[in-house]
Structure formats: structure tokens, C-alpha cells
Write a structure and sequence with these properties.
single chain; alpha+beta; 4-stranded antiparallel beta sheet; disordered C terminus
Length: 321
């Protein structure tokens, strides 16, 4: 006789014992649940299924013949239409939807992260290409009417036998020019070797000829106001200032003052008396040399508002080449 026992755990953790007895010679079947008879059947020699409920769960015991052998199985039928299975399908659909939403969100995040990474990597590549692409340089000439009435300037540059023209637009992020721009000013322009028409002008990098032009302009203006000063000394000090700080420091003396609305323009501030610094002797008679070492230049005011003593008063103590 074949004898099999299965244990089903129901609600609240309660155990149910399912027992099956099958006579090999007679074929009689006895099916028990916790010792209570569920089914008695006679002369069962082929495959057959017995169904019954344990609580609200639809259970089945299968007798399956394969050749000369008989196999026995116990399972929960989750496909048949029962209240428990309907609730189970609703719960499975809910969990499936939540799982799909979770994995869908992961996929979307992965796609977004991949696109962001690719975009960032592409921008880096573009920046690297741009940094390496604009490798050739020459000088450009500025053309404008008046800077104060225009938000852009036009510049020209020559590559080989061809002349190219571009526009430079001023915005809030654009650094102000060190000197007032004039037609004919010369600055560095960088361009792509394979595309000379793709060029960029750098207003902070005047050509050597333009630097000399700036020095001449500031020196001439100063000497026109203070003809008693010695021209070589004035030029020497200006060249030192340009060499140390670029055109930004002396250029502030040529930029116009700014006033807002009806408010009066700010009064010019006197330069503070020079103080001794390591390696820089105090020189109250040469404030321009002191200006070349200052970290914070004075407010932008016209040169004529400064006295000789304030700016370019050279005495016996003056810089020499």
C-alpha cells in the first residue's frame, strides 16, 4: 500500500494534515484530512484528481500514472474561480503594477542619467575641441561708431589672402574694456585652422602696437594737463604700470564716469598717501608708481579731475629704466 502525508498551513498558522492511502493490489483510495474521511474510492489504477477545500483554499491531490508507476501530488489550485483566488489575482495585479512602476522608474532614471552623462561628456568633448580648435591667432581691427550707443562691435582680421568679419556682442557677463574702444584698435583674435571664419576676439589682449598706443594716449593727456612733468619719466612709469598690471590700471583714467538718474556724479577720491611696503619705498612725490602696486585701483574718473600731486607729480625720486 502507498501512503503519503502533506501538511497545509492555513490562516493563523494552523496546520492541516492531508493523508492518502492507495492499495497497490486493490487500487482502493482513502483520503483523510486531520483524520477525517474526505474521499473513499475503489479500484483506481489510472490517473485521477481529488479536490476539496481547506478553509477557503481550493486544494487538489493528484494521482498520476506513468508506465507501471503511480505518482502522487498535493497542490493549491490558484486558477479556479474562487473568492480566495479572485482576491489573490487582485493583489497580484497590484503588486505587479507597483513592481512595473518601480522598475519603469529605474529605467527612466537610468536613461536620464545616461543622457545627462552623454550630454556632459559631449560638452566636455566640445570644450576640448574648441580649446584645441582655436589654436591659430592673429590680430583683429575694431570698427565702431560709438561704444555707448551700441551693444556690439565689428572686427576684421586677415588670414592668408582672405579677410573675415565678425561681431562681438556686449552683455552683462562681458568684462568691460580696459580702454574706451575706437575704430582701428587692435586685439588678439583666435580662429579655427580649418575654419578661419570661426574667430573670437579677446579685448583683454591688445596687440603690442595697441599697448604703445594706449601708453602714448595716457602720456599725452597727462602732459597736456601737466606740461611741467618730464615726458620720459611719465612714459617710464606708465610702461611699468602696463607691464605689471596690463592696460586695466591706466585705462581707468580714460573711462568716463557713470551717474544714475538725477543723482550727481561721484566726486573724485584722492589717492591715499603711499605706505611703505617690503621692497617698495614710500614715495609721496610719485603716487603713480604707488598706483602700479595697489590691489584696488581708484574709482573711474576723468584724468583732469586729479591734481598733479595726486597722479603724476614726479620730483627727484622717480622711477628710471
Amino acid at each position: 500500500m502507498s501512503q503519503y502525508t502533506w501538511t497545509y498551513v492555513g490562516g493563523g498558522g494552523k496546520n492541516y494534515k492531508v493523508s492518502l492511502f492507495h492499495g497497490r493490489k486493490t487500487g482502493h483510495v482513502l483520503l483523510l484530512l486531520d483524520g477525517h474521511i474526505l474521499q473513499i474510492d475503489f479500484s483506481i489504477r489510472d490517473s485521477k484528481t481529488y479536490a476539496f477545500f481547506i478553509e477557503d483554499e481550493f486544494c487538489e491531490v493528484h494521482l498520476e500514472r506513468k508506465g507501471e508507476e503511480m505518482y502522487y501530488f498535493f497542490e493549491i489550485n490558484k486558477k479556479v474561480d474562487t473568492p480566495r483566488n479572485r482576491d489573490r489575482r487582485k493583489r497580484d495585479r497590484k503588486y505587479l503594477g507597483q513592481s512595473l512602476a518601480f522598475f519603469g522608474l529605474l529605467v527612466v532614471l537610468a536613461i536620464v542619467a545616461s543622457l545627462a552623462f552623454l550630454s556632459y561628456d559631449k560638452k566636455l568633448d566640445q570644450k576640448r575641441m574648441q580649446a584645441s580648435a582655436y589654436s591659430d591667432s592673429t590680430k583683429a581691427w575694431v570698427q565702431l561708431d560709438t561704444l555707448s550707443n551700441s551693444s556690439s562691435i565689428r572686427y576684421f582680421y586677415v588670414v592668408g589672402a582672405d579677410t573675415y568679419s565678425q561681431f562681438y556682442f556686449f552683455d552683462r557677463d562681458s568684462p568691460p574694456p580696459d580702454f574706451p574702444l575706437e575704430t582701428g584698435d587692435e586685439f588678439l583674435v583666435r580662429f579655427h585652422p580649418a575654419r578661419p571664419d570661426l574667430g573670437r576676439i579677446y579685448l583683454s589682449q591688445p596687440s603690442p602696437e595697441q599697448v604703445r598706443k594706449y601708453i602714448d594716449k595716457v602720456a599725452a593727456l597727462h602732459l597736456s594737463l601737466h606740461p611741467e612733468d618730464h615726458p620720459p619719466h611719465v612714459r617710464c612709469t606708465l610702461e611699468q604700470a602696463f607691464e605689471r598690471h596690463g592696460p586695466g590700471r591706466p585705462g581707468r583714467f580714460l573711462l568716463p564716469k557713470r551717474s544714475s538718474g538725477s543723482q550727481s556724479a561721484p566726486q573724485p577720491k584722492l589717492l591715499p598717501p603711499p605706505r611703505s611696503r617690503p621692497g617698495i619705498p614710500a614715495n609721496p612725490r610719485n603716487p603713480l608708481l604707488e598706483l602700479s602696486y595697489r590691489k584696488s585701483p581708484p574709482n573711474s574718473v576723468p584724468l583732469e579731475n586729479f591734481s598733479t600731486f595726486q597722479l603724476f607729480n614726479f620730483g627727484s625720486d622717480h622711477p628710471t629704466h
